[in-house]
Each structure stands twice: as C-alpha cells, then as structure tokens.
From TrEMBL:
Family: Belongs to the ABC transporter superfamily. Ycf16 family.
Protein name, entry field: Fe-S cluster assembly ATPase SufC
Alphabetized Pfam families for the sequence: ABC_tran (PF00005)
Coiled-coil segments: none
Chain's gene name: sufC
Keywords linked to the UniProt accession: ATP-binding, Nucleotide-binding
Lineage: Bacteria, Bacillati, Bacillota, Clostridia, Eubacteriales
Domain ABC transporter: 6-248
SUPFAM superfamilies, A to Z: P-loop containing nucleoside triphosphate hydrolases
GO terms, molecular function: ATP binding; ATP hydrolysis activity
Tagged with keyword Iron: no
Organism name: Sulfobacillus acidophilus
Entry-linked PROSITE patterns: ABC_TRANSPORTER_1, ABC_TRANSPORTER_2
Xref: InterPro entries: AAA+_ATPase (IPR003593), ABC_transporter-like_ATP-bd (IPR003439), ABC_transporter-like_CS (IPR017871), FeS-cluster_ATPase_SufC (IPR010230), P-loop_NTPase (IPR027417)
Length: 259
C-alpha cells in the first residue's frame, strides 16, 4: 500500500455564519510529523474537528483528500475506516462501555474483511500496548474515560491510536494539562508509529512536546490560515519570542492588517 497523503487545499470553514478558517492549505505525508502552533481562537481545533467531520463546522470552500479520495464527502466513521484518527483535546466520557469493549468494537469496525479480531489476539495486544504506555491494566475494564484524570484521558487517546494504527493521526493539544513525565509517555506512543505508513499533525500551543516528538515541519496559524512555516527551530524561536512577535512581523510585511 502506498504511503498515506492528507491534502488540504484552500479550506474555508465557518460556524454559525462566522468565518473560522480562511484558505488553509497543507499537505501531510506518511513519514512526516507536522506541528501547528498558534494563539487561542485562530482555528486550530476547528481544523481538527472539520477534518474528522464534526457537523457543527460548515465547509464553504476548498477541498480535503486522503489518499486521493474526497474526505469531505465521507461520514466520520468512513473517515476513521479510511485511516484518519483524532486524539481529542477534551476526550468524552462514555458510561457503561469499558475501554476494552470500546477498542475491540472500533477495531472490528475497521477490519476490511468484516471479520472480528480473535479475543485472545485482542487482549494480548491490548495488554502489550498498555504496558508500553505504563497504564494500569485495570483501566481496560473501567468505563471509557469515566473518572479518569486529564492525564489519564490523554494517555487513553494514545492507547486508542496505537491499537487502531491509523494512517494519519491528528493530535489536538494532546499535551495540554500534562506534566513532563506524562508528555514523555505520550510522545513515546507517537514516536513508536513513526514510519512511511504513518503521518501526524500535532496541534499545540507550546514547544515543550516538540522536544519529545520532533516535527519535520512547523506551521504557525494566525486568523484562520497558515502564515509561516519552517523546521523545528521555528518552534524554538516562537517559544522565545511569543505570538506577538509573529503578528508584529506579519503586520510589518503587510501579511495581515494591524488590529
């Protein structure tokens, strides 16, 4: 199978007639880690939700393709079966459904041949991944995210990613609220999938997670579009100078109007 390619071309979206994204263009290929950074309210989470098919976000222009197929024409479950994964900023709690049952159902839904994964094979892999992520095995039998701390919920998102093995993963502020030890574990999970069959889009406010998940490309979003791209050192520069430096540079060059 060819390496995955997520192509976002001149994407415009709005919520309740309010423009959010303004012509965003980006391509993520297998073997690449892209980081998107930007101030609050610039559209980073809106981009993630739109890519996964949240109905609140109306696409008013542009195109998105995954492996050459029209992603915007797919329902959210079809996008997941195509190999797209979203680790959410605020994972939902689902009472009455254990983490293990949730994951087995998700795996079975994504199996191309329509067959269910054998129970022993599933449990062995789940045990292995949970041990790798330093998770208490008891979490497998607890209701999904119910009573989990913020850090436990984020680690559970990475557990889901490692079990499902997506082609393209979107990590929406997976580092928010985590201490350094938890960030290292989350990063270990992301890094374990690195390779030509996996691409990642890491959305974050801070440079610190990029110390552990080294990006191939860093993009800065302002006012719903990418205004500056570079390598990992761009994140380091941004961490030192802050977002006001970016905006002042954009105003100086006429890229954005002074507010």
């Amino acid at each position: 199978m060819a390496a995955p390619v997520l192509e976002i071309a001149d994407l415009h979206i709005q919520i309740d007639d309010k423009p959010i994204l303004d012509g965003l263009t980006l391509t993520v290929r297998g073997g690449e880690v892209h980081a998107i950074m930007g101030p609050n309210g610039t559209g980073k989470t809106s981009l993630a939700q739109t890519l996964m098919g949240h109905p609140r976000y109306a696409v008013t222009g542009g195109a998105v393709r995954l492996d050459g197929q029209d992603l915007l024409a797919m329902k959210p479950d079809q996008r997941a079966r195509q190999g797209l994964f979203l680790a959410m900023q605020y994972p939902s709690e689902i009472s009455g459904v254990t983490t293990a049952n949730f994951l087995r159902a998700a795996l079975n839904a994504c199996r191309a041949d329509g067959s269910n994964i054998p129970l022993k094979e599933f449990r062995d892999e789940l045990d292995r991944v949970m041990q790798f992520l330093e998770m208490d095995p008891k979490f497998a039998n607890r209701y999904l995210n119910e009573g989990f701390s913020g850090g436990e919920k984020k680690r559970n998102e990475i557990l889901q990613m490692l079990m499902l093995k997506p082609r393209i993963a979107i990590l929406d502020e997976i580092d928010s609220g985590l201490d350094i030890d938890a960030i290292k574990v989350v990063a270990k999970g992301v890094n374990s999938l690195k390779g030509p069959d996996f691409g990642a889009l890491v959305i974050t406010h801070y440079q610190r997670i990029l110390d552990y998940v080294e990006p191939d490309f860093v993009h800065i979003m302002v006012d719903g579009r990418i205004v500056k791209s570079g390598r990992a050192d761009l994140a380091e520069e941004l961490d030192k100078k802050g977002y006001e430096w970016v905006r002042s540079e954009l105003v100086r060059t006429g890229t954005v109007e002074e507010s």
